[in-house]
Amino acid sequence: MHINTLRLTTLVMLTGLFSCNLAPQKNPTTTAITAKGDAIILYDNGTWEYKDKNAVANQAKINKADSELSTTSGSSTSFLVKSKIANVVINTNTEKWVVKKSDDGTSEYLFTLKDKDAFAMLITERIEMPLETLKKAALTNAQNASPDVKLVDEEVRTVNGSKILFMQMDGTVEGIKFSYLGYYFSSEKGTIQFLTYTTQNLLKENRQDMEELLNSMTIQK
Questions:
Q1: Per CATH, is 3-219 categorized as 3.40.1000.10?
Q2: Would you say the pTM of this structure is higher than 0.85?
Q3: How far is it, in rounded angstroms, from Cα 158 to Cα 1?
Q4: What are the boundaries of each domain within the chain?
Q5: 9-41 burial string, b = 16+ CB within 10 Å, else e?
Q6: Is the pLDDT reported for residue 34 higher than 70?
Q7: How far is CA 41 from CA 38, 71, 111, in A?
Q8: What is the pLDDT of residues 171-183, one digit of tens each?
Q9: How many other C-beta atoms lie within 10 A of the C-beta of residue 72?
């Protein structure tokens, strides 16, 4: 098996840091993706509707049990982003993060921290591999993009009942110093890389939000 199947390429390293179209627009609404893959518009007053009005024949008949939106503690809104490839769900706080489907074939979903320079991507594969192989592949691909990349931290964490590998990698791409905080998991239901990233000078400022997003990941049994 070639390491390239994980698709963590130089383009991936640069996408979140330099792409303008991931930045959220400053307007009263936000677009998000439901667990079924439908685009919806979230309004500031807590209401929502499908972006494509033809996607649902009668939105009024959708009951609360079928809704992908649920209110958490306080005024935060949680939003379930479900992979169509692997058995993973991201319970996204839409007051902090904008989520969209990726259209470059590199990842499945892209996330942007509102009004801040932090990003995330969900990379999923149908193949299964040993966790040590996944670790080596991720490091090798990172080194291909950034020869000076270093593994700063590594540990196995229990996240929502699942044992998941955490790694922090720091490196330089095109003269910009970045930090990646990522969760890695593989089973017979697929391989998952959930990566958050920002520039090194902004890591302290953004780390809490990045870790909260990582910890919203749930592996479905």
A1: yes
A2: no
A3: 28
A4: 3-219
A5: eeebbebbbeeeebeeeeeeebebbbbeeeebe
A6: no
A7: 10, 16, 16
A8: 998 889 999 999 9
A9: 11
